[in-house]
Design goal:
Strand order of the largest sheet: 1-6
Number of helices: 20
Largest sheet: 2 strands, antiparallel
Helix content: 25-40%
Strand content: 5-15%
Number of strands: 12
Structural class: mainly alpha
Distance between the termini: 21 Å
Shape: globular
């Protein structure tokens, strides 16, 4: 469509007809990007057909290595130093949602869009990929492939796997766009280059139903693990990114849960009055998909499991000697031949460059790994210091499982960092934290108190916190844990197993409360949350939150904020819960306080034990959102192509 209808679908049609964009290979995991075949040969056997599909895999954007410095957190979770005002995060703060379109401000750092002249579906450099730019092209490839299956000669298993991948990707590209843009036309046929499109925009729920149908069929066609199939035997050990049954079930459940969420059920509106008003039928269907997936995982039939949260030194992300997997390895790896991280937990990832090898180390080394580091410790990197807001850090409750503001939480305002949820110490850099391990005399300990060296507005933290969840703090100019020689790599997954547990808990909780469960899975909604808390050693959901459906959903939402922090999911969560416009979630804050302990204390003691004085909250920025901000605006040129592809309300 030029939706990019004329630009992408029509151009794709011409390219495919002429054979200029069809790639094939002797070994479809090691294809020559310059090889071309005609449209008939592309679909004649599994090797050629799979080579055709590989280009779709290659187009999946890697959100965190999309440009030198990237933006993927757009909610109330992050603040960015003022010199990054060209970033999408700042523009969202200002209410300028037009900025998602590359070229609007000259900002290339948001993974959603790139101008057409910078897109190349065959380029193995991840900076050449963006969601919207590739979506319509890849959807057309899916439809053309599905329509060409009659020409395929191969085994029944090969045919099922080809069809399953194409169905998955057709739904996936639609769904990822829909999360930001709302309901779209669902393209399930190729549009000839000579034909003007007439496909109408569907409601989100109508389009989600079509996504769900494709995801369901894909799940029925695809294997759990390609390594255990005849078709996958030739590439054993290199099938991690292959679309499989678990991925399809995960997105089946997600598309249905999103369809049943308050925004999609009630429409964009302010006031927050409908935030608990879900569509129970969609939620029950979502829970069943997640239940099917989790039953397979917990019965040992899959390659997936929760990574261990077992540390010898959690501040340094140093896993315990008896740990076999590591939570930190979901997001960061080194000395691993550059393979994309994920541990046993990542289900769907971008960055599939070279089938498991992550692209340019320069993108990881400069500047992704220094994105969260104060400028004075960044070693000359083009650092823009993304850091968490204080209001978001407040989601990290106490080790006993209670929120900070609960009267029984035992949180002490004079020792605000003590006895917090164990993930707080893994994810958040707070005052007194030993930030530099090597030989350095200055800035060794994070001086995040009011007026401290780490609190410089233009080069440090404005909020009193930094974070290191995705990248260890030792990626600084002294410790250099991101050095080129150790092949650092990073990934922020689109979907991981912990997310599945929490989506299951939300879907069941919305439909039938904390004690409800799907009929194809043994755990209740509250059990699913507690699985995630057990992993890190946090206290279970208190019974005071399980009697009320609304209070339980509040705890599920807080758990999502903590467990999935800074992974690019918060904006869409606030959006679908009809909370994006509400004052509690539009205000970004800092924590201000005075140090009480002397410097020696931080050399000899755990900084979590430190006392502070005059701890209080200050506003940093208040977003001014209206109902129109629940959806990004569509591109003006796209909405002018034909009647029926209408602009989102208010834009």
């Amino acid at each position: 469509m030029k939706l990019k209808i004329s630009t992408f679908i029509t151009c794709a049609a011409m390219a495919l007809a002429g054979g200029t964009m069809l790639t094939s290979c002797e070994d479809y995991l090691d294809k020559d990007p310059d090889s071309t075949v005609d449209s008939k040969d592309a679909f004649k056997d599994f090797t050629n057909f799979q080579g055709y599909i590989e280009e779709i895999y290659n187009c999946v954007p890697n959100k965190n290595i999309h440009y030198w410095t990237c933006t993927w957190n757009l909610g109330d979770d992050e603040w960015l130093v003022p010199n990054g005002n060209w970033h999408m995060l700042h523009q969202v703060d200002l209410g300028n949602f037009w900025a998602w379109q590359d070229g609007t401000l000259g900002q290339p750092g948001f993974w959603f869009d790139k101008s057409a002249d910078r897109l190349d579906p065959r380029n193995t450099d991840q900076s050449s990929h963006a969601l919207y730019g590739h979506a319509w092209y890849c959807i057309r490839k899916c439809n053309l492939g599905l329509e060409s299956l009659d020409n395929f000669v191969g085994t029944d298993e090969e045919r099922r796997f080809i069809r399953g991948q194409l169905l998955f990707f057709r739904a996936w590209w639609h769904f990822e766009m829909m999360q930001f843009l709302g309901g779209l036309p669902y393209l399930d046929r190729t549009i000839p280059a000579s034909e003007s499109p007439t496909e109408q925009r569907l409601s989100f729920q109508e389009a989600a139903d079509k996504c769900a149908a494709d995801f369901r069929e894909a799940a029925d066609l695809l294997p759990i693990n390609w390594d255990n199939t005849t078709t996958g035997k030739k590439t054993v050990g290199h099938n991690d990114f292959r679309i499989n049954k678990i991925m399809a079930l995960g997105y089946l459940g997600k598309s249905l849960l999103w369809a049943g969420s308050p925004l999609m059920e009630n429409g964009a509106q302010t006031g927050g009055g409908m935030t608990y008003n879900y569509n129970a039928q969609y939620c029950e269907r979502a829970a069943k998909a997640f239940g099917e997936l989790l039953t397979l995982v917990e019965s040992g039939q899959t390659q997936y499991a929760l990574a261990e949260f077992n540390y010898k030194n959690v501040y340094n992300h140093e896993k315990a000697d008896d740990a076999t997997t590591c939570y930190s390895d979901i997001f960061w790896s080194s000395r691993n031949q550059g393979r994309v991280p994920g541990s046993t937990e990542s289900i769907f990832r971008g960055g599939t460059v070279a089938w498991g090898n992550g692209g340019s180390n320069s993108y990881v080394r400069y500047n992704y790994s220094r994105t969260f580091c104060p400028n004075k410790l960044a070693g000359g990197a083009d650092n823009l210091v993304h850091h968490p807001t204080a209001n978001y850090v407040e989601n990290y409750g106490m080790a006993n499982g209670l929120p900070l503001d609960d009267p029984d939480s035992e949180w002490d305002i004079n020792r605000p960092f003590k006895d917090r949820d164990p993930r707080f110490y893994h994810d958040i850099v707070f005052d007194g934290f030993k930030y530099v391990n090597g030989a350095r005399e200055t800035m060794k300990y994070a001086s995040l108190y009011t007026g401290g060296d780490y609190r410089e507005t233009t080069s440090g933290s404005s909020t009193g916190y930094l974070y290191q969840k995705l990248v260890p703090h030792t990626c600084n100019d002294t410790d250099e844990a991101d050095g080129y020689g150790i092949n650092p790599n990073a990934d922020v997954p689109y979907m991981r197993l912990a997310d599945i547990y929490l989506m299951y808990a939300e879907a069941v909780g919305a439909a039938s409360g904390a004690s409800g469960k799907s009929d194809n899975y043994s755990r209740t909604a509250v059990d699913a949350v507690n699985v995630i808390r057990d992993r890190c050693g946090a206290g279970h959901v208190a019974t005071k939150f399980t009697a009320s459906r609304e209070r339980f959903l509040d705890e599920v939402r807080r758990e999502r904020a903590v467990e999935l922090s800074f992974e690019g999911l918060r904006f869409n969560d606030l959006q679908r819960w009809l909370l994006l416009t509400e004052p509690k979630y539009t205000l970004k804050t800092s924590h201000e306080f005075i140090r009480v302990e002397d410097d020696k204390f931080y050399e000899d003691n755990d900084p979590a034990e430190a006392r502070v004085a005059e701890f209080h909250t200050e506003p940093v920025f208040q977003r001014a959102f209206t109902a129109k901000h629940y959806w990004f605006p569509l591109k003006k040129n796209d909405t002018q192509m034909y009647v029926g592809f209408e602009q989102n309300p208010g834009w």
